Amino acid sequence: MTNASEAASPAPPARVERALGLSLYRVMQQCRLLETRAQELFFEGLVRGTTHLGIGQEAVAAGFAGAMRADDYTFCTYRGHNHTIARGVPMAPILAELFGRATGLLGGKGGSMHLTSVEHGAMGSYAIVGAHLPIALGAAWSAQYRKSGQVAVCFFGDGTTNIGAFHEALNMAAVWKAPVVFVCENNQYMEYTPIGAVTSVARPAADRAAAYGLEPIVVDGNDVEAVHAVATTAIDRARAGDGPSLIEALTYRHGGHSRADPGKYRPDDEVASWKARDPIPAFRSRLEAAGVTAADLDAIDEAIRADVAAAEAEARAAPEPGPEVLETQVWADGGSSWRN
């Protein structure tokens, strides 16, 4: 288990310029405010199925998305709301998908755990732990073969580092020098189990990098500037043909594993210590110290709250999907009626 004080970067990154800083702040707040409202709507009975929130982990999604090209690929886990939002996917179809409505990203059939928008380079959220790492490698190999200059960025949790697909994907990525960046969001827990209790090395991702000829890279995942700097270097390296990177971003989810988990297995002082390093107020303080006014940042917050409210209203008004949607893409023949 990693304490919050141990997660600091060895050296602070260079300050980002004002426009980029405001963009990173805006994306983090979009993630936070939409997920906060989604959790409330879940308890109102509007969100179908379960949800896995990334509240507290926004700096990883924002930092990487800010370093990516529009045609780059994002692959993420079932805790994928932040990564989808960060790639520029509008809020209304995200909420509509969570509500199971016809205007959702997947017509209301995928729900929270499978958000996808190929148009925005969000190539899916995957519910099977580790399943998307080889798929991200395949997308990177395709880009390499086509000489498109695209890079695949693949996000996964610390528990994935003990899955076979993690090692298989890393090995082949290194062999092929594929343009893929693997990002371990180490939030310290595999569902309910501390990662350190079941892993033989202190850094579950970074300490295994050398086995595949890769540099061990650890970054403070609660520092959006540090994340952006590391992301820029790794993505540029991949785009230049210098092969993959494996990055371990140390972060923490403020809540439990999913909506049904109160997270009581975590020590109170540990939770308090990490929440004191919340990436959003920390970056807001840096921006204010750099000359951005509180009024400017408040205006961004209010605009996002208005956007969330408008997205919610649109999603609430959306229709349920009909049989022509619900009964297709279910079985190999495209329908389900023959089985009934």
Tell me what you see in this structure.
- By secondary structure, this protein is α/β, with parallel strands linked by helices.
- It has one domain: Thiamin diphosphate (ThDP)-binding fold, Pyr/PP domains (Rossmann fold), CATH 3.40.50.970.
- Helices cover 41% and strands 11% of the residues.
- The protein has 11 helices and 8 strands.
- It has helices spanning 18-43, 58-65, 81-86, 91-99, 132-146, 164-176, 224-239, 268-275, 279-289, 294-317, 323-326; strands spanning 73-77, 122-126, 152-157, 180-186, 189-190, 193-194, 217-220, 245-250.
- It has a 6-stranded parallel β-sheet, with helices on both faces. Strands 5-6 form a two-stranded antiparallel sheet.
- α7 links the parallel β7 (217-220) and β8.
- α1 crosses α2, α1 (18-43) crosses α10 and α5 (132-146) packs parallel to α6 (164-176).
